Amino acid sequence: MQQESYGEVFLLDKPLQWTSFDMVKKLRNTLKIKKVGHAGTLDPLATGLLIVCAGKMTKQIESFMGQEKEYVGTFVLGCTTESFDLEKPVFPVADPSHLKLHHIQGAVAQLTGAILQVPPMHSAIKIGGKRAYSAARKGEELELQSRAVEVREFEITRFEQGELDFRISCSKGTYIRSLARDLGQLLGVGAYLKSLRRTRIGNFTIEQAKNIEEVVEQVTARENENLRRLS
Questions:
Q1: Domain residues of the chain, as ranges?
Q2: pLDDT band at 151, cuts 50/70/90?
């Protein structure tokens, strides 16, 4: 596995509560090489497709990161949180019971296409060399600038009892938590991200992904077979 010619791309289904770095660390220890990295962070509370590159394939990370992403998940209306997901406590904003589907679709239309988006404070964005989430946890205020992103598709697949399920296709750098915040503001009732799953990166889909335990088992078996052949 330490050969200079080695390079491999792993399509992983990241489980809940694991960080993206947890996945990288697990594979790095299994492969016993240093050059392992992922192509696009998923928050610990998100699941789904994570591309991990090893060996010479780490050179392709930037190209993978630049590809369109697709997500499915659930927004909750009427409440929000400091982080716009369930990392922080939920607090009420306004009763959403008067909202109809056409209200939701009107707000969604304003968040579709080329838009300017302010990243959430609880994010890995660096401002003056400091991670935004680090400053947020210390109660410090950082001014985050809006960034141009593209939301190519924003489809509502279910809307009932103040919850809505969605499917979103978007460009690199788009924060789904920020879409939750902005949707809640447009509707005047607040919103937060209840669940999120990444289902596609470019042409790679979640159906092609494997869980980390399965990949570790396959890599270990392959290495044991290689050692057997050399002995």
A1: 7-66+204-230, 69-120+146-201
A2: very high
Q: What is the mean pLDDT of residues 142-147?
A: 78
Say yes or no: do domains 7-66+204-230 and 69-120+146-201 share a fold: yes
Find the distance separating the first CA and the last CA of the chain, reported in whole Å.
16
Q: Are strands 147-160 and 204-205 parallel, antiparallel or unpaired?
A: unpaired
Residues designated as active site: 43
Q: Please state the pTM of the whole predicted model.
A: 0.89
Rounded CA gap, 19 and 40, in Å?
Answer: 11
Residues 182-200, buried b or exposed e (16+ Cβ, 10 A)?
bbbebbebbbbbbbbbbbb
The percentage of the chain sitting over the pLDDT mark of 70, rounded to a whole number, equals 89
**Class at the top of the CATH hierarchy for domain 7-66+204-230:** alpha beta
CA dist., res. 194 & res. 177, Å (int): 9
Cα(58)–Cα(117) distance, integer angstroms: 29
Q: Return the number of other C-beta atoms located less than 10 Å from residue 41's C-beta.
A: 15
Picking from 141, 131, 123, 124, the residue whose alpha carbon sits closest to that of residue 193 is: 123
- What secondary structure letter does DSSP report for 26? H
The CATH number given to 69-120+146-201 is: 3.30.2350.10
pLDDT at 135: 46
